[in-house]
Structures are given as structure tokens and as C-alpha cells.
Amino acid sequence: MQKPSGPREKIIPEGDDRERLSCPDCGYIRYDNPKIIVGVVATWEDRYLMCRRAINPRKGFWTLPAGFMEIDETSAAGAAREAYEEARADLSLDRLLCLYDLPHISQLQLLYRATLNSPDISCGPESLDVGLFPWADIPWDNIAFPTVHWALHHHRDAIGQDVFPPFGNPPGASARMGGNGN
What separation in angstroms does the CA of 130 have from each of 5, 18, 93, 122, 182? Predict the structure, then answer.
């Protein structure tokens, strides 16, 4: 029988105040940190780009193009990459629209305001469908995550503003509501 190896014992490392998994054989300490999600609220004229998820969580529900930031990329580059991967969208980023803290799922979400350079979009491998929706036709009852609602409303609040601070979690909004909790 092989002896277990790798990080398997919980300790509080010297100078730290949290339990971490550690390897008692070599002293390695594993630090689990929040995930950074990057994406866009992109428009073509008065229509919003939305993607119907082909993957879990919330498969079949509508979302904004967004996903995990990769190593060695900026948040803006990651947001543009996600828009291309999910909707084959060619777009221009304007500015950071919002930053949402979701500690219950260890996520930090950064979404940029963007304008499509063309209305030509199509499904990437993580999308069942993509569409450009006027505000009144957004599939509000089939939105994947509360943060999508927040970002769409924050985008609408910023229309006509060239300069604004990034929006945060809405006052009184529960980061634990709905869907898969984000």
C-alpha cells in the first residue's frame, strides 16, 4: 500500500491566520485563492449581446460572455477573449463597468462595457445560442446568475456617461441569491 503524499494536513502556517493544507513530508503549503471572472456587457446599437449556456452550471440559461481569467493575460484581454470564445464577437472595450465581490463562492467578477464592431456573432463551444436583444426582449426569466441582472442594470445606469467609477454589488442585494449562487 502506497503512503499518502502531497498536501493533506491542515495547519496554520507561521505568520498566517488561516488553516491551509500542508504536506508534512516536504513542507509545501497550498494556498487556495479566489477565482477571477472577466467578461463584457456588449452592445450593438441598442441591443445587448447574450449567450445561452451550453455548459453547467445553469446550462440552457442566458448570460453575458464571461469566464475565468487565464494566467499571463490582463483582465481586459481576458474579457475580450471570453466574448470571442462564447459569441465569436469582435468588440471594442470601453472601460471597467463593474466589480462584484462574491466571497461565498470565492469569486471576483470584473465586467467591461463594450461595443460590438459588427453585429456578426455566432455560437462558440460554450454557447447553445447567442443573440442581440433590445432591453425589453432580454430573457429576464431565464437569466443564469444574479450578477448578470446586476451588470445589465449597471450598464443601463451608465448610458450616456463617459466617466464613472466601477459599480459594485448592489446595496441590499444578496450575493447568494438564485441560480448557482452568483
Answer: 46, 43, 19, 6, 21
Which residues have CB under 8 Å from 156's CB, separation 6+? 135
Per-residue model confidence (pLDDT) at position 174: 56
Q: What is the pTM of this model?
A: 0.85
**How confident is the model at residue 6, as a pLDDT?**
83
Q: Which domains does the chain have, with CATH numbers?
A: 1-32 (2.20.70), 35-157 (3.90.79.10)
Which residues in the chain show pLDDT less than 50? 175-182
* 3-state secondary structure at position 151: helix
**Residues with Cβ within 8 Å of residue 27, at least 6 apart in sequence:** none
Distance linking the first and last C-alpha atoms of the chain: 42
Q: Give the whole-angstrom CA distance, residue 71 versus residue 52.
A: 26
Q: Which residues are within 8 A (CB) of 110 and not within 5 positions of it... i.e. 6 or more apart? A: 36, 37, 38, 39, 75, 79, 96, 98, 99
| Residue length of the chain | 182
